[in-house]
Amino acid sequence: MVLVVQKIKDNESTLRFGALQGILKESHSLFAMFHGPIRTLLDRQPSAEFARGHLHTFVTDYLSDFSVGKKLQLPTYRDSLTERGTVQMLTVSREVALEVQSLTTVLGSCLRNVICQSIVLFEDLLVSTTLPLDDTLNLYTYAILRLTPSALSSNGNSWSYLRKGGYVNADTTLSSANGAAAAERYNSRSRDTSPGGQNQMHHNFRPLQREKLSKGKDGFVAADFATTEIRGAVPLNPILWFHQAEERMYLCVYQHKNLTILLVIPASSLINGEEGIAHVKRHLLENASQNIVTVEQKLSRGWGGENAYHVGGYRYILSDPNRKVSRASP
Q1: Where is coiled-coil annotated (predicted)?
Q2: Has residue 98 been placed in a domain?
Q3: Phi, psi angle pair for 56, to nearest 5°
Q4: Which residue segment(s) compose the domain that 113 sits in?
Q5: What's the predicted TM-score (pTM) here?
Q6: What is the pLDDT of residue 13?
Q7: CA within 13 Å, CB half, 182
Q8: Cα distance between residue 48 and residue 135, in whole Å
Q9: Which are the contacts of 89, defined by CB distance < 8 A and separation ≥ 6?
Q10: Which of 28, 181, 213, 276 is the residue whose CA sits 20 to 30 A from 286?
């Protein structure tokens, strides 16, 4: 992957190569999580029209977070103090930790004979995870970008936890449409019957398209990506490809106030995907609702706000090796 960035004169926004490399790595990791390895897409259709269409729309949607009109929006030094590409943990007391453990046990039993995996977030911080490290990082990154309450309430660009104003780039919209058309041309001819093919690949699935994501009255967060002539727009539960587990998983997202639950279900365990997801959702509402309410209440009582971990009297320094300068707090 090659990233080309126009040089700018604004000293405050000097490009840092490590950050630009991070953009490429993050976009590739997220793409592979939703669409599987690029090599697999090329094996399925060697002419690469299918892979090219999905890559085009996905990367364009991803880079829209960094754009203001036709210009690249770079973070200020203040924004840079929030580390991107890392998992931010929420420290909890022993009492709350036991409640969270009880909740994850209930979430893991949403299917009788199959153990489901889960990630629990409070605000934008990780409370618990049962996934391997790499898969946790990728799914956490996606949740921060699009699924948490602050992400859903924002229609604009994001710097991890920081939300900016909304912008629409005409060039980006046009290129997205062209890429979507390429993917759609392949989809109309495809006979793929794999779980991923039946789901997001046949519906031009675009998980980073912010305006498609919404929280329903039942508390579940879904994307109206799938459209049929009979049912119209229907919620679509994405299928993820987890690198460490080497298995496709359904993603089910539930939200209660500031608590976000990402439930991951093995696709192979559901004979009928959407009906099986509906069963899992009913089980979650019937058996985990009280645990969810309890955990959210206890975390809210102990929550000190976004600056909860600031230590009084400490100063902070930010060093930029590329420019050989450093900035410190007053």
Answers
A1: none
A2: yes
A3: -60, -50
A4: 2-7+88-158+208-328
A5: 0.78
A6: 52
A7: 18
A8: 26
A9: 125, 126
A10: 213
User: Do the strands 162-163 and 158-159 form a parallel or antiparallel pair, or are they unpaired?
Assistant: antiparallel
Q: What pLDDT is stored for residue 8 in this prediction?
A: 67
Q: How many C-beta atoms surround the C-beta of residue 317 within 10 A?
A: 8
Query: pLDDT tens digits for 229-246?
Result: 444 444 567 889 887 767
Q: Is residue 71 part of a domain?
A: no
pLDDT of 109 higher than 80: yes
User: From CA 68, how far away is CA 71, in angstroms rounded?
Assistant: 5
Residues present in the chain in total: 330
Residue 243 within any structural domain of the chain: yes
The backbone region for 44, taken as left when phi is positive above 0, alpha when psi lies in -120 to 50, beta otherwise, is alpha
Taking Cα atoms as reference points, which of 155, 150, 105 lies closest to residue 125? 150
Contact 5, 20 (CB under 8 A): yes
The backbone torsions φ and ψ at residue 251, rounded to the nearest 5 degrees and listed phi first, read: -110, 125
Cα dist from 14 to 3, 6, 9, 17, 316, whole Å: 16, 11, 8, 10, 20
pLDDT band at 165 (very low <50, low <70, confident <90, very high): very low
pLDDT digits (tens, 9 = 90+) for 297-318: 999 998 877 666 666 777 777 7
Given pLDDT bands bounded at 50, 70 and 90, which one contains residue 198?
very low
In a domain, 323, yes or no: yes
